Amino acid sequence: MNDEQPVELTVVAQRAGVRITVVRRYLEFGLFEPHPEPAEAPRYDPSSAARIARAERLRRDLGLNFAGAVLVCELLDRIRELEAQA
Hints:
This protein is mostly helical and about 90 residues long. It has helices spanning about 10-15, 20-30, 50-60, 65-85. It contains 4 helices and no strands.
């Protein structure tokens, strides 16, 4: 998580440059999760927009479906974690 305040799903969609329906689809596939702090309406980490934009580039450039794009994003994150440990 970063230092920015959690935002609504519509803000995540706007920052990612995609429709809200696309954001909801990635949410269903577990690409990102609601912020853990309780709120009246669910809030999300603003960095979720960057994850969505990366997944959308994978879908566009490699022809992946939603599940495939999420899987590749998770694998890329894991690779970064392992490289940081080395």
